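Page 42, continued from yesterday. The earlier attempt failed because a stray header line got pasted into the input along with the sequence. Redoing it now with the clean sequence only.
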Amino acid sequence: MSLSAKARKRILIILSSIVGVLAALVAVVWLGTYHPKPVQAEPVFSRTVETGSSAAPARILQAGQNIKVLNWNVQYMAGKNYVFWYDEWDGSGPDAKPSRADVEATWTELLRVILDENPDVIILQELHENHITTGYENQLQRLLNSLPDEYAYSTSAWYWKAFFVPLPQLMGRVGMKLAIVSKYQIDAARRHQLPLMPNDPLTRELNFKRAVLEAQLPVQGGKPLSLFSIHMDAFAQGSDTMERQVDHVLKLLQETQAAGKSFAIAGDFNLVPPGLSYSRLPDDEKPMFKPETEISRLYQVFKGYPTLQQVDGPDWRSYLTHFPNISDAPDRVLDYFFVSDNIQPSAFYVRQHDTLHISDHLPTVLTFNVN
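This time it went through. Structure tokens are written below.
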């Protein structure tokens, strides 16, 4: 039995309508999400340039100078009074967002620590901007407005940005950034895209696009200094994502050093260090990591902090950097510094004693000589 011309026409109209709807959906998702290049320049903000002030010349690092760098995943100022939906590996955490009161209290405490440490450079992860969970606040701008004027330079890069994410816990706009804030001149910044987790096309567009933010600081009488902020993937089990991301970072750092630059990279690598750390994890957490941790490759090539002697030494607890919202105390290292061969740090520590209530990550501090 053959279809009549009228029936064929009706089928074609239906198929055309379906194709049109799908094309419109693809266009909406594409226009409402972020599509960075593999490497792209990022703007550098200068208080002097933006305000038109000529009161003080730019401060430039000098060869032989010691600088202090503070690294911190600030958990978008959410505080520690919650178990968020993503804190449980199966997404079953009961909380979707912090209260405004808790965000404000966390801001007060975060600024107290930063001002007390008085670092030369601040490297940050998990800053929100235009995010439904934190009232669409521009958290980097608020931080800059709260810091002394000597923090004259900053740069940032998106690694999550979408007009609408249809998760029940969100159902709205999201935006998350890496940032670097400096007392000293930043003359260029770049965003380096990390390999993505394997996902279906829709999830890939709406999901994190993890990255490395690079800020280049000129050094009078020495090599340029590249400082990096990084936040690698989590929830990547069952794939080679973490291995590919570590390989990408290793290549980036080797190329930076080969180009005659000094570097320090800091951030949340979402990997435990080699040695005893894996065995210390709660049993239900071990499937989320590998006993032969991927970050070993970075330790094999560059100096890492905390050192392997520190994370397995008698004071190992003082070097823990992560306090999961589902735990009673810090229980692992996820945050690191790695530095180029020519950098000799003089001090490294994790500030634990008065920061356990601020974020699920603890601030880490490295002091080193600029060559």
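Notes: The mean pLDDT is 93.
Reminder to self: strip header lines before submitting.
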